[in-house]
Amino acid sequence: MKRTLIGGFFLLSGVTGLCSLWELVANNPADSWRTPPGRFLTTLLETGTLPLFLGLSALLVLGLGILVLEYFRKGD
């Protein structure tokens, strides 16, 4: 039960943080960009929020991983 709560908290924190970051990037669009990285990643690089994006993505994946492992885990 404890791990499920931790996984849920990580997942919720990651989703909330990424939504906030997405809003920040949408309000500060890049003026010029190239096709391979795209407008979103170019804006992340220009604003210096790429490490935050990677950290929040890792938090989301970690929380989802914990929840999946707890779901398929045998009962105690």
What report would you give on this structure?
The chain has about 80 residues and is mainly α. It has one domain (about 1-70). The protein contains 3 helices and no strands. It has helices at about 1-25, 40-45, 50-70. The longest helix is centred in the first third of the chain and has 26 residues, at about 1-25. The protein is elongated. Keywords: Membrane, Transmembrane, Transmembrane helix. It comes from Candidatus Anaerotruncus excrementipullorum. This is Peptidase M50.
Secondary structural class: mainly alpha
Please provide the count of β strands. 0
**Strand share of the residues?**
under 5%
The ordered string of helix (H) and strand (E) elements is: HHH
Q: Level of helix content? A: over 70%
Spans with pLDDT under 50 lasting ≥5 residues?
none
What integer value in Å does the Rg equal? 16 Å
Q: Number of DSSP helices?
A: 3
Mean pLDDT equals 89
First CA to last CA: what distance? 10 Å
Largest sheet: none
Name the quaternary structure. single chain
